[in-house]
Every structure is written in C-alpha cells, then in structure tokens.
C-alpha cells in the first residue's frame, strides 16, 4: 500500500518515482525513452513501465512490483532453507528481505526492485554451486538473468561481474579450465538471447546509443556529490544501518574462515558491497533506491548468521533482531511511515500541484502538450499531459544543455509551468518572454504561462 504505483497515492510520489511513473504514461503516448525524456535505467525497465501503464493508470505496474517483491522474499526463503534446512530461519530472513526491498526501493517503481529477483536467484544458484558443484547447464539461465538485470538496472549487474571474477579465479585455481570455458559459453549464450531482443527494440526506436550513454556511460563517468554532501553521507549511512547492510557485512567477515571453496567469492562479495555503496553515495544525483544494489552482496551471509538459533533453544526472530542490532524494527517503521511523512512535509507543494492539475485539465485537451519545470513530474502525470522536451539533469554533459536550448527555442507546448525556486535556463526565459504570457499561479508555488495567440 506504500508503493506509489498504487493509483490512490500517485499524487504523493517523490520526484524520482514520479519520473518513473510518468515514463510509462509518456511511452503509451508516443514518447521514446532517452530521446524524448531522459532515463538512467535500462530499456527493459521502461518497457515494463509502458506495459504497467497500458490501461491508463499504473495498476498493472503495481501488480508487477508486488510480484517482484514477493518473488524476492520467496527466493530468500529457499536460499536460507538451502543453507540451514530450517523453515523458521528462512521465514524470518525472507520476510525481512521483503521489508528491506520495499524500504530501499522507496516507493516501488525503482529499477533495482524489478531486477532484484533475478539477482537473488543468482545468489542462490552460486551458493549451491560453491557448496556442491551445481550443474553447468544452469549457467545459460545465469547468463539470461545477467542480461535481464543489465537491461533493467545496470548498477545491479555489478553482482554478476563480481561473481564472474570469482568463478574465473575458482576455476583456474582448481584447474577447471575446460569446465570454466563451457560455463563462459553457456552464460554468453544466455546473454545473447536477451541482448539481441533488446538490441532489436533499441535499433527500431533509435535508442541503442542513447540508452547506453544515459544508463551506463554517464553514471560511470560523472562523480561528485552536489548539494549538502554530509547530509547525503548521513542519509546513506542510516539506510545501510537500518536495513542491515552494515551488520551483514561484519557477519560476512566472520564467515570467511568457514567459506571453504566459496572463500574467494565471499571475499569479493564483501569488497563489492563496499564499492557499490561508495559509488551510490558519490554520484551527483544520490538515489537511495540504488543502495538496493548492495543488498544481494550480503544475502548469502543471512542464513549462516542464524545458525546458532537452529537448535531451537533461542527464539529465531529475537536472534535475528539481535544480530541486526534491532535495526529491522526501525526498517518496518520506515517502510510504512516514510511515504506518509513525505506527503505531510510536502503538503503545500502537493496542494498547489493539484490546483495546477485541475487548471491544466480544464484548459487543455489530451492532444495538447504541457512543459513543467519542477522537481517532479506529478503535474504531467496527474493531468495526463506529455511534454515535448525534458529537463536536463545538472550533471549531464554540456551537449545535452545545448540541445535543450535549441529545442526550447522552438517549443510548441500550449502551457509552460514553472515551480517557484527552480533555476530557469536563460534560453527558456527568453522563449517565455517572446512567446508566452503569464495567466495564473498555483498557490504561489507555480506560475503558469500560456502560449500567445498569433493572429495572421
């Protein structure tokens, strides 16, 4: 009920969640991701959003997100059963895995949540592989899931990259050269099955380069925190603590000596969780949902950390909470309270947005375009009006801003709406002055400009 894709709480979506929700609506009205609006997720994520909004609202997307959440919990249940043969431990870990996924996903529409079940399957598969030499044929599925994850949430692919390095070292050290080569071919075959399908779509929509540039190249080459860096570090630290990433890391350190054939994998997982967490923190646009990419790295340590409670002498739930320093209790409060706290803190803005949305609905048709310069996409989303151009993220290269200047000079949108406090680009200010006239405000929060009527 706290997922913003649930139609009744669309009105209160956070800026990033509103952009994701808007993308599905926009695609169903002819807009193309990466070209008509910017996107930092993979192509398949936007196709899922398009499918999720095909009925005119995001109810189908909501159901897809629930499936992803429940599937993640079920896979974690099976992973812990595989490790401990204890249903109580599996139930506790699986349940809190869903709480963690819902909390870090911050409203559900994030790419990391939709990619999570595929990554957790890989965690379970590799845990069994290093334990009892799993069959190599499943590396085709491993490759398929790696490709699916990459085209949903590229940052989640880090787990597969780290695991591939671990497998490479493991096979070389055990002289499994032929077997390792076979595994590589099987995984590559799986990658190609998905890769060719997505490449066909990207070629057809002419997004094959722009999708890679915006979802992979720009995030990997642009670092440096904007705004209050200390606040960003503080927020990230709180998320990592209350959702158990930090405590699980230390449990992993303890378990290395018991890892046996999985030692190199465990070590690389611990290095990977630190690397991913730091990478998420230092990017210009901190997004807490990306911290969910660190989650799979430490999930293999969950079951063994409860091993001392398996004899039945200790309460499983209490032991789990003690292992996590009782932080899961705060996680539960956060999951259920954060959306409502956010709505309360931004009540004035949401009220003003509703007033603007009402005006837009009454004074435009579904064929009209409305460009909104604001922190979120709520006005476009709730009024069911698309924009012909998109706001350029601050950290994007200059070529995007130059392209924006050219496009905004020729903008044909019927209305331009500017939120108070937003930095108005010089090119947009010139266009508004030359071709638009102010006709109203939204409770002082928004200024609405209507295109001037040119008489022949």
List keywords for this structure.
456 residues; mainly alpha; 20 helices; globular
Could you describe the 3D structure shown?
This protein has 20 helices and 4 strands. By secondary structure, it is mainly α. A 4-stranded mixed β-sheet has the order 1-2-4-3. A hairpin with a 3-residue loop joins strand 3 (436-442) and strand 4 (446-451). Helix 6 (139-150) runs parallel beside helix 8. The longest helix is centred in the middle third of the chain and has 29 residues, at 177-205. The radius of gyration is 24 Å and the shape is globular.
List how many beta strands DSSP finds.
Answer: 4
Mean of pLDDT: 89
**Could you tell me the strand content as a percent range?**
under 5%
Query: For the report, how would you describe the main beta sheet?
Result: 4 strands, mixed
* Strand order, largest beta sheet: 1-2-4-3
Distance between the termini: 53 Å
Q: Which regions contain 5 or more consecutive residues with pLDDT less than 50?
A: none
Rg calc: 24 Å
Oligomeric nature of the chains: single chain
Q: Briefly note the structural class of the backbone.
A: mainly alpha
Following the backbone from N to C, one meets helices and strands in this order, namely HHHHHHHHHHHHHHHHHEHHEHEE
């Amino acid at each position: 009920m706290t997922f913003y894709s649930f139609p009744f709480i669309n009105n209160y979506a956070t800026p990033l969640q509103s952009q994701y929700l808007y993308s599905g609506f926009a695609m169903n009205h002819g807009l193309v991701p990466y070209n008509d609006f910017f996107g930092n997720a993979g192509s398949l994520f936007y196709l899922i959003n398009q499918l999720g909004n095909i009925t005119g609202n995001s109810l189908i997307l909501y159901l897809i997100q629930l499936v992803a959440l429940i599937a993640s919990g079920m896979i974690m249940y099976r992973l812990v059963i595989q490790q401990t043969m204890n249903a109580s431990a599996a139930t506790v870990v699986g349940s809190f895995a869903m709480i963690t996924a819902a909390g870090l996903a911050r409203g559900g529409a994030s790419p990391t949540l939709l990619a999570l079940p595929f990554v957790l399957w890989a965690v379970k598969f590799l845990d069994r592989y290093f334990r009892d030499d799993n069959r190599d044929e499943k590396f085709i599925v491993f490759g398929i899931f790696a490709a699916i994850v990459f085209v949903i949430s590229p940052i989640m692919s880090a787990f597969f990259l780290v695991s591939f390095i671990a497998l490479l070292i493991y096979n070389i050290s055990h002289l499994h050269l032929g077997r390792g080569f076979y595994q590589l071919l099987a995984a590559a075959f799986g990658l190609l099955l998905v890769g060719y399908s997505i490449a066909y779509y990207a070629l057809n929509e002419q997004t094959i380069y722009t999708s890679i540039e915006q979802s992979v190249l720009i995030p990997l080459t642009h670092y440096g925190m904007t705004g209050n860096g200390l606040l960003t570090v503080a927020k990230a630290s709180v998320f990592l603590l209350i959702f158990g990433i930090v405590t699980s890391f230390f449990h992993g350190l303890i378990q290395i000596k018991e890892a046996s054939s999985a030692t190199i994998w465990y070590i690389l997982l611990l290095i990977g969780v630190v690397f991913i967490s730091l990478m998420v923190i230092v990017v210009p646009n901190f997004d807490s949902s990306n911290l969910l990419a660190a989650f799979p790295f430490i999930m293999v340590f969950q079951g063994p950390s409860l091993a001392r409670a398996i004899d039945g002498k200790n309460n499983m739930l209490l032991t789990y909470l003690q292992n996590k320093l009782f932080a899961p209790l705060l996680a539960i409060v956060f999951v259920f309270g954060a959306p409502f706290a956010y709505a309360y803190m931004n009540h004035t803005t949401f009220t003003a947005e509703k007033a603007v949305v009402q005006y837009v609905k009454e004074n435009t048709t579904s064929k009209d375009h409305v460009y909104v310069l604001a922190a979120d996409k709520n006005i476009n989303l709730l009024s069911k009006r698309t924009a012909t151009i998109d706001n350029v993220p601050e950290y994007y290269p200059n070529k995007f801003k130059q392209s924006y200047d050219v496009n905004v000079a020729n903008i044909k949108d019927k209305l331009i709406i500017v939120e108070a406090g937003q930095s108005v680009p010089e090119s947009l200010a010139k266009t508004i002055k030359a071709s638009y006239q102010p006709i109203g405000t939204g409770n002082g929060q928004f200024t609405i400009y209507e295109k001037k009527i040119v008489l022949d």
